[in-house]
Amino acid sequence: MRPQRHGGCLYFFLVSILLLLVVCFVTAVVAEGVEVMAAAEEAQLLPRPLVIELPSAAAEGERELPAEVRCASWRLAAEANNLAPWNVVPEECAGYVREYVNGVSYRSDLEVVAREASTYARAARGGDDGRDAWVFDVDETLLSNLPYYAEHGYGLEFFDHLEFDKWVEKGEAPAIPSSLKLYNEVRELGIKTFLLTGRSEGHHGVTVDNLKKQGFHDWDKLILRAAADRKKTATTYKSEKRKDMEAEGYRIIGNSGDQWSDLLGFSTSARSFKLPNPMYYIP
Amino acid sequence: MRPQRHGGCLYFFLVSILLLLVVCFVTAVVAEGVEVMAAAEEAQLLPRPLVIELPSAAAEGERELPAEVRCASWRLAAEANNLAPWNVVPEECAGYVREYVNGVSYRSDLEVVAREASTYARAARGGDDGRDAWVFDVDETLLSNLPYYAEHGYGLEFFDHLEFDKWVEKGEAPAIPSSLKLYNEVRELGIKTFLLTGRSEGHHGVTVDNLKKQGFHDWDKLILRAAADRKKTATTYKSEKRKDMEAEGYRIIGNSGDQWSDLLGFSTSARSFKLPNPMYYIP
């Protein structure tokens, strides 16, 4: 038996080495491609460096920190808007992000933000003149695209518009439960709900169907991105739409979004709620 | 033996009940006191509710999350500026915060922000006209008051100005190593460094001594809070000082602070860096 088992091991060992080499090569090629695409895509938009340096003290002779600690710091920095625009999750954090979004922490993080928003909504409601408004982003705010990202490396792959569009057109994105609860509470308080999404107007029908199927009803406006807005950053596009709301006489008392570009810019909300999202960044 | 053991159990049971009642009573009194103080102190400043609800789904019949997960969510929400102003760390998170600030995560979180800032500083420097400026907060940004907070429950105790002043007057706050490194890098790039602190002007001498002793040298300005600025929020006070810098012709390209009130308001920096601080909140 022994020789046979050793032979099996050797075979397995060699195949593993070969597979590892293939993976390394593919990764290197993809990474380079992503960098080039990223540089080209972002160059016009952003006067910022695209370098992401994860904290490792090893180079300076200090004790190296575990990847989990480094990746948690990366995620925190992203949530606090400390990072330069980033295109993909750092490679060493792929596993960390996968575990986070599939674990209890992501759910808990979403819940805290929703509860804080709910408490605020009850206190901030200005009156019964029907002018209080709350802006909700759609993707990763009301609806979750986790099933899509599960098939695409949880943010490790460079964003593929065509593939993502196919997913959107299925209309099968599930609701984020804590957001659905907040959405209903906000509506019950008599606050107008404006859904402001980066999805294109061509996806109006499927977005309406998906939202309704998941329990979101009776919004006052659903604003999708028109062709004329396609070249704007999300920050500019969404700020302009908020400015329109103000011009129509609405008081934007709350704004929920998973991207800083949902919340910053001009005509910002009295208070903003940043939902966690470690998978992608939209400028 | 049995009767004796039962007697011991009963005695133990009764003492436990008594202790629980005492703890409940003390907790209620302390909580009420904190709320009253908080309400009084914040009423003029902040049109926001001071409720902190930690995420627990138990009340709704869902599975309860471990305290560590809930406290991590609370900390993340604070860092993403999602929370209403808070006065003390939630009681159940006392241990979590203590472990965080004394562990590798806090150091790692500080390092990521400093490295990101450093990368940006190198790219953002505008020219050699001596007009580029970087604003640094002092407490929990350049200097650490961890030795003080270790003696005061790591943010679990309500802030005591008199006690904290005594600590400041010792001049023994250690440098935050990653901030010292960033500070020196920024200076070497020829960027002016403005130290903008909520400390009062009466602490000018001891602050200078403490900073120098810890390796911070050659700042261009150290701005402390004058008596006239004492009733302003930190956001207003610091915004006004940044506006003065701009009026003097400086371009504020970077701003590092552990409080959102260091970074928000008007005359904001081209880019801001929020250092972690789960121990206290300054409006």
Automatic annotation (TrEMBL), chains A, B:
Residues 1-28 form the signal peptide. Keywords: Signal. The keyword Transit peptide does not apply. CDD domains: HAD_VSP. It comes from the Eukaryota. GO terms for molecular function: acid phosphatase activity. InterPro entries: Acid_phosphat_B-like (IPR005519), Acid_phosphatase_pln (IPR010028), APS1/VSP (IPR014403). Belongs to the APS1/VSP family. NCBIfam families: plant-AP (TIGR01675). This is Acid phosphatase.
